[in-house]
TrEMBL record:
Swiss-Prot/TrEMBL keywords: Disulfide bond, Repeat, Secreted, Signal
Gene: LOC120036002
Major localization listed first in the record, in broad terms: secreted
Keyword Electron transport set for record: no
Name of the protein this chain belongs to: Equistatin-like
Location within or outside the cell: Secreted
Annotated Gene Ontology cellular component terms: extracellular space
Disulfide bonds: C27-C46, C57-C64, C101-C120, C131-C138, C175-C194, C205-C212, C249-C268, C279-C286, C323-C342
Cited SMART domains: TY
Family matches, as InterPro entries: Dev_reg/Prot_inhib, Thyroglobulin_1, Thyroglobulin_1_sf
TM stretches of this protein: none
Organism: Salvelinus namaycush
């Protein structure tokens, strides 16, 4: 019996050695990574050949969607739990992107309990009458889903016929048209806010960035009113507010905040002027500037060294010496380059050492 077992094991080993084991597919690798990831993460479904199945579902949310052969979600195919799914495998199916109504409905379904959930027709457009399930109120809307003033009816009262030919629906305002265009634009685009009459509200905010600003009646930004997230907003509706244009320092700061990570961001005082000392957060270097924000030669100090008093009236600011200029060039040069040592007066010290060679 023992001899038979040994023969069987050897035969199995040879059989496995002859078998061709294919490498894992992208779907299988993604599935393995998800299985080792956090609880509730989306785990892709692969077929017997290791390819993405045309329909993918998230077990933790109940949402399903169609994917292409690379596993990428096809826009407009996601369906929330409890709603009919799109047939992802039919060849003749035309898969359209979701409409504003469908996107608003999806957002509401994922929102707080009792929130208003818009009703969309089979084509994804807003139905002419909308009702709030938790309050029982109903109202007419235009094609953009905006409530038509004077059409709301409380629960238990007769509803207005929203599709009657005699209903007078005003044309969309510039704000409403701009908002519609933004809702159909790329994710994260600025979406203007309109009041009940369709006019621009005096304060506009960008949801993706958190910045807010004042606008005029045409929706144009009023210079100098933009406030970054987390800072107090300007009162855009006060009659006495004097709105000044942004200063060169503020404009330079705004440009830097929207620039690459680690870029120098100038510091401005309460009046928007350059502070006398400027520091680069990424490098730790500081220097003095004039009223135009231009660096004063010879005032830059590397991190960990005493700063020059930029605001003293009696300070005499000398130009940099050859040693200091050579040191600055070396500090901005390749790693391991020789960096000269200068004394307090900016002159070469009598002994120099190379840090990389000793």
């Amino acid at each position: 019996m023992a001899i038979f077992t040994i023969i069987l094991l050897v035969s199995t080993a040879f059989a496995l050695g002859d078998a061709t084991i294919r490498p894992k597919t992208p779907c299988e690798r993604a599935r393995d990574a998800a299985l080792n990831g956090p609880i509730g993460a989306f785990i892709p479904t692969c077929d017997a050949a290791g390819q993405y199945t045309p329909e993918q579902c998230s077990g933790s949310t109940g949402y399903c969607w169609c994917v292409n052969s690379s596993g990428q979600k096809i826009p407009g195919t996601e369906t929330p739990p409890g709603t009919p799914r799109i047939n992802c495998i039919t060849q003749n199916a035309t898969i359209r992107p979701k409409t504003p109504c469908e996107r608003a409905r999806d957002a509401a379904l994922n929102g707080p309990i009792g929130a208003f959930i818009p009703t969309c027709d089979a084509a994804g457009q807003y139905t002419s009458v909308q009702c709030w399930g938790s309050t029982g109120s109903c109202w007419c809307v235009n094609s953009s889903g905006q409530k038509i003033p004077g059409t709301e009816t409380p629960p238990g009262t007769p509803r207005i016929n929203c599709i009657t030919q005699n209903a007078t629906i005003r044309p969309k305002t510039p704000c409403e048209r701009a908002r519609d265009a933004a809702l159909n634009g790329p994710i994260g685009a600025f979406i203007p806010t309109c009041d009940a009459a369709g006019q621009y509200t005096s304060v506009q905010c960008w949801g993706s960035t958190g910045s807010c600003w004042c606008v005029n009646s045409s929706g144009q930004k009023i210079p100098g009113t933009e406030t970054p997230p987390g800072t107090p907003r300007i009162n855009c509706i006060t009659q006495n507010a004097t709105i000044r244009p942004k200063t060169p320092c503020e404009r330079a700061r705004d440009a830097a905040l929207n620039g690459p990570i680690g870029a120098f961001i100038p510091t401005c005082d309460a009046a928007g002027q350059y502070t006398s000392v400027q520091c680069w957060g990424s490098t730790g270097s500081c220097w003095c500037v004039n009223s135009s924000g231009q660096k004063i030669p010879g005032t830059e100090t590397p991190p960990g060294t005493p700063r020059i008093n930029c605001i003293t009236q009696n300070a005499t600011i000398r130009p940099k010496t050859p040693c200091e200029r050579a040191r600055d060039a070396a500090l901005n040069g390749p790693i391991g380059a020789f960096i000269p040592t200068c004394d307090a007066a900016g002159q070469y010290t009598s002994v120099q050492c190379s840090g990389s060679t000793g």
